[in-house]
UniProtKB/TrEMBL annotation, chain A:
It is a multi-pass membrane protein. It comes from Puia dinghuensis. Residues 132-375 form the ABC transmembrane type-2 domain. This is ABC transporter permease. Coiled coil: none annotated.
From TrEMBL, chain B:
It is a multi-pass membrane protein. The keyword Transport applies. One of its GO terms (cellular component) is plasma membrane. It holds the Pfam family ABC2_membrane_3. It is found in: Cell membrane. GO terms for molecular function: ABC-type transporter activity. The chain crosses the membrane at residues 21-40, 174-196, 216-240, 252-273, 285-305, 341-360. This is Transport permease protein. The lineage of its organism: Bacteria, Pseudomonadati, Bacteroidota, Chitinophagia, Chitinophagales. InterPro entries: ABC-2_transporter_component (IPR051449), ABC2_TM (IPR013525), ABC2_TM_bact-type (IPR047817). Belongs to the ABC-2 integral membrane protein family. Keywords: Cell membrane, Membrane, Transmembrane, Transmembrane helix, Transport. Residues 132-366 form the ABC transmembrane type-2 domain.
From TrEMBL, chain C:
The keyword ATP-binding applies. Gene3D superfamilies: P-loop containing nucleotide triphosphate hydrolases (3.40.50.300). Residues 5-234 form the ABC transporter domain. GO terms for molecular function: ATP binding; ATP hydrolysis activity. InterPro entries: AAA+_ATPase, ABC_transporter-like_ATP-bd, P-loop_NTPase. The lineage of its organism: Bacteria, Pseudomonadati, Bacteroidota, Chitinophagia, Chitinophagales. It holds the Pfam family ABC_tran. Keywords: ATP-binding, Nucleotide-binding. It comes from the Bacteria. It comes from Puia dinghuensis. The keyword ATP-binding applies. This is ABC transporter domain-containing protein.
Length: 376, 368, 246
């Protein structure tokens, strides 16, 4: 226990002495936390639309006007033919092409039925999905109006009896203004803490390997687990400091105050840091040079960022991928963060995720300790 | 020239001698792209929802079975009362709740109108909007079923065609995006670290005292990374074609040219970074901590750039991967030719020349 | 005389390559034992086995009475080690390095303070106590490194080419430190490439191709090979080597 004190003293001295590194470690993430949530906005608006109106009737004009005035779509231009409208999609000038065929209005009246053609650039799935859904509901809304008007106009021929109708009253809980920042800030904070903590702990140990000081430590009677704890604690402290500063940035910059208790957040944070430091350690035991440690950390951090549900929904992944994601510590901590911050979830609510984090942490650390040998 | 070749050979030896690093250089980027290509999708489906049915009649049963039949929803459970909702949301078990008030079916039959309540967990606004939309569509469908007897006049039928990606898979969007991200970061990191490493080991001084032009040192440092990246690109393209069903629709030559331009630009960034960084750790912090998330977000494959504040839109113009992403999408997925990507290629060329010149000059300054 | 290092047919194989082959020797307490050999002869491998950094393939060895297979952690309490690579922390000061290494050997606070003062005095580094180690000249670093390796007063200290790249004057001072330690009863096990340093040792062993080719006092070895200096003795033996140096 006494030796641990000396180890910690040394680690903290080294950490605090390197002011430049310390500044980068703390400031770079915070600046990103201030700016990046602004870039992460999924609210779909401004869907560019190219229209080929081959009908030029009042109905077609009103349909176009209704689409444009909905606020979701931005008219990028009229084209003479559908082919030209598709050309605009191809050139990325529009996301969506709409063709109202010739005789649209007259066929609608005469045949009670007429198609309009829509082509959506589906490379970006979300935009395509939402754009299609919005357009569909606008058109069906418009359809209702036209029908109603036409029926009034043709002096109700005893109107085909009103069909029964189910209507949907929807409400949004926990984020009534659908503010995307509320959702992104906690998750981005997690990714920043993750990158810093996991990478730094890995680099730190590999640096001692490269400079040869670890060999000196290996001939001392120091216990493996003491050495490892000595390496972990400083980064845990650093992680907690960064996290706290991040919460403050979220509060000052975005007005986000956690609904749940801070105590739940911090307990989860410590369990999370424990598991991520285990990963850092594991990376360190497998790499001989800083270059290797870097490649490996980059690999894991990138995968975590892309797959832990920060930017994309885990639910929509295939089952095998979801199974893999459960082994990623950030996926659990991000869920905890969002639940506690936005919904005020308590311990009992987040217990399954917290438990998963603890298990992952024990496995990673155990593996790392076994793999870190003082004797080769 | 002979010198240069000797030197480049030394750099290749460094890279190829170390099997572990080599494995990481090739294996890890490829693993990422394949993994993301298969796993990522921004289609929202299988959302877990809860149903609270106070009415329990034929209509609600029919509507519920219609909802559960849709691929978008997965009815997790039926709750007895709305008071349990908050708890279920807090545990994160459900994304949405559907509530049928008492007497729902009777209302519908007798008054011709009934309202169901839908509560979405809007902590993720995008998902909330999307699934509410899906549900509304299902209900609309149900309404048309009801109205089947009373034939609907004046039906406008939108015929929707999803271009380039009819099944709305994630891969066509994510593979180019991740390619841009991974190639850029790997190139930047490898270059900056390789140079700073020589500084740390002190071997850079030996090179600097040799009668060797600085530009040769730089070129020979960049050569292996360029080669590795091009090989990586080719492997990625082959794998995308075989496993992800994403063949290169346009000209392969054009795509490779664009990639080489992009790689050179990224290498130049790494070069610039290595000049200001003193330790490997600093170089890595710069390339990873500093560049990873901004690149991820400002490339445009995760979030639409046109949604961002103007300042960030301007900033995104400085991110090379943004332009490369456009090039891959147009050439690889849409099969367009040079006439539609020349502007992006030109921008990348400009960036590359500018960055390279600056770093070369900086490198010389340090020598004096 | 008390034996502190005892080895019996100690062997290390890496696959089919035998780095150290059946080494058998004893080192007595307080002795300065020189461990010579060309590059690649197997010196470092042998030393790493004795320090508990590398597990032997076969044979026996005890260090300060502890077995190298089963009691490596006990061994570590009784030995000091100074590696070829400089192994103090660059970004800690002189005093902080001493404090750290003394601390992890379990010394108490007051003992550490006393020891620090004493060491700084012996090394005449009092003024540099608060200087970062990276700012010291190499020679000072090496001397400091040695002092730190025996800060916990071990029975045996292993020195792996401790004077590489150091000027002759500093090397001389370095050996003064070694003698001082030896006078206090510390056993010194040292590898070196400098033949003049070999002359300073009580006994010298010369390894060729993983085998101990000669082991005796410098005077007797010179007599045995009929040569005037250790240089000649070493050359005589080393040129028979079949293995290539590294």
């Amino acid at each position: 226990m006494k030796t641990l004190g000396f180890l910690l003293e040394k680690e903290f001295r080294q950490l605090l002495r390197n002011r430049q590194l310390l500044r980068t470690l703390l400031l770079a993430p915070l600046i990103q936390l201030i700016i990046l949530p602004l870039a992460a906005d999924y609210t779909v608006k401004n869907i560019g639309i190219a229209v080929a109106d081959n009908d030029h009737s009042t109905t077609s004009l009103r349909l176009i006007e209704k689409i444009v005035s909905s606020g979701y779509f931005k008219l990028q231009g009229y084209t003479a033919s559908y082919h030209d409208a598709l050309g605009m999609v191809e050139a990325d000038k529009a996301d969506l092409a709409l063709q109202i065929p010739a005789h649209f209005e007259s066929d609608l009246v005469r045949e009670d039925k007429k198609q309009v053609y829509v082509a959506i650039n589906a490379i970006e799935g979300t935009k395509a999905n939402l754009g299609g859904a919005y357009l569909n509901s606008i058109i069906s809304d418009f359809n209702e109006n036209v029908r109603a008007q036409w029926q009034v106009g043709s002096a109700s021929t005893g109107s085909p009896e009103e069909a029964p109708q189910v209507s949907v009253a929807s409400s949004n809980w926990y984020n009534i203004f659908l503010n995307y920042h509320l959702y992104m800030v906690p998750a981005i904070l997690v990714t920043l803490v993750t990158a810093m903590v996991a990478m730094q702990s890995a680099f730190n140990i590999v640096q001692e390997k490269e400079s040869g000081t670890i060999e000196q430590i290996n001939v001392t009677p120091i216990k493996k687990h003491i050495f490892i704890i000595g390496k972990m604690v400083p980064f845990m402290v650093l992680g907690i400091v960064l996290f706290t500063m991040g919460l403050l940035v979220g509060w000052i910059g975005y007005g986000i105050v956690p609904l749940g208790s801070l105590w739940v957040l911090y307990v989860s944070l410590i369990v999370y840091l424990f598991s991520m430091l285990g990963l850092g350690l594991l990376i360190a035991t497998y790499s001989g040079t800083q270059q290797q440690a870097m490649s490996l950390s980059f690999f894991f951090i990138n995968i975590f960022n892309m797959m832990s549900g920060v930017f994309t929904a885990v639910d929509s992944m295939p089952a095998w991928a979801q199974a893999i994601v459960t082994t990623f510590p950030p996926s659990h901590f991000i869920k905890i963060m969002r639940a506690v911050v936005l919904k005020g979830s308590g311990f009992s609510d987040i217990l399954p995720w917290l438990g998963a984090l603890a298990v992952i942490g024990i496995v990673l650390n155990g593996w790392a300790v076994l793999n870190y040998r003082k004797t080769s | 020239m002979r010198q240069l070749i000797t030197f480049i050979r030394k750099e290749f030896l460094h890279v190829f001698r170390d099997r572990k690093t080599l494995l990481m250089l090739f294996g890890l980027p490829i693993a990422q792209i394949v993994l993301f290509g298969f796993a990522l999708s921004n289609e929202i489906k299988n959302s877990h929802i809860a149903v609270v049915d106070y009415s329990k009649d034929a209509v609600t049963t029919k509507l519920i079975s219609k909802i559960s039949g849709s691929p978008y929803f997965n009815i997790q459970r039926s709750l007895a009362g709305a008071e349990e909702l908050n708890a279920a949301f807090k545990k994160g078990n459900i994304k949405m709740a559907v509530i049928f008030p008492a007497g729902f079916g009777d209302d519908l039959i007798h008054t011709g109108k009934a309202t169901m309540q839908v509560i979405a967990d809007a902590s993720d606004p995008n998902q909330a909007t999307t699934i509410t939309n899906y549900l509304t569509n299902i209900v609309n469908d149900f309404n048309s079923d009801l109205a089947q007897d009373a034939s609907q006049p004046m039906q406008i039928e939108p015929e929707v065609q999803m271009m380039y990606n009819p099944e709305l898979r994630g891969a066509p969007n994510f593979v180019p995006g991740v390619m841009a991200l991974v190639l850029m970061l790997v190139c930047t990191m490898m270059t900056s670290v390789a140079i700073v490493r020589e500084k740390e080991l002190g071997t850079m001084e030996i090179l600097l005292v040799s009668p060797f032009k600085p530009i040769y040192i730089i070129i020979s440092k960049l050569a292996p990374n360029l080669l590795i990246s091009v090989v990586n690109l080719i492997i990625i393209l082959v794998l995308s074609d075989i496993f992800l069903d994403l063949p290169v629709k346009g000209s392969l030559l054009l795509l490779v040219t664009g990639t080489v331009l992009f790689i050179m630009t990224s290498l130049s960034i790494g070069l610039l970074l290595s000049i200001s960084a003193k330790t490997q750790q600093a170089a890595m912090m710069g390339s990873l901590m500093g560049m990873m998330l901004p690149t991820m977000l400002l490339t445009g494959f995760l979030f639409p750039i046109e949604n961002m504040p103007v300042a960030l839109q301007v900033l995104s113009n400085l991110v090379p991967s943004r332009w490369y992403f456009i090039i891959i999408k147009r050439v690889m997925l849409k099969g367009l030719g040079f006439e539609s990507v020349w502007r992006e290629m030109l921008i990348l060329t400009g960036m590359c020349v500018l960055l390279f010149t600056i770093s070369l000059r900086q490198f010389k300054i340090r020598l004096q | 005389m008390e034996t502190v290092i005892h080895t019996d047919r100690l062997t290390k194989r890496f696959g089919s390559f035998i780095a150290a082959n059946e080494l058998t020797f004893d080192v007595a307490k307080g002795e300065i034992f020189g461990f010579l050999g060309a590059n690649g002869a197997g010196k470092t491998t042998a030393m790493r086995m004795l320090c508990g950094l590398l597990a032997p393939s076969s044979g026996k060895a005890t260090i300060a009475g502890f077995d190298v297979y089963t009691q490596t952690e006990r061994i570590k309490n009784s030995i000091g080690y100074m590696s070829q690579k400089f192994s103090l922390y660059d970004d800690l000061t002189v005093a902080e390095n001493i404090r750290f290494y003394a601390g992890i050997y379990g010394m108490s606070g007051p003992a550490i303070r006393a020891k620090t003062t004493q060491l700084l005095e012996e090394l005449q580094l009092q003024k540099e106590a608060k200087t970062l180690v990276r700012e010291l000249p190499l020679g000072w670093k090496q001397k400091l490194s040695f002092s730190v390796s025996i800060v916990h007063e071990p029975e045996i200290v292993f020195l792996d080419e401790p004077t590489g790249g150091v000027d002759p004057v500093t090397r001389r001072q370095f050996w003064d430190l070694i003698y001082a330690a030896s006078d206090k009863g510390v056993t010194v096990f040292v590898t070196t490439h400098y033949m003049d340093e070999a002359e300073y040792c009580n006994r010298v062993s010369i390894m060729v191709d993983g085998v101990i080719a000669a082991l005796d006092s410098p005077v007797r070895l010179k007599g045995q090979f009929g040569s005037g200096s250790m240089e000649d003795v070493f050359y005589e033996l080393a040129r028979k080597a079949k293995r290539k140096g590294d």
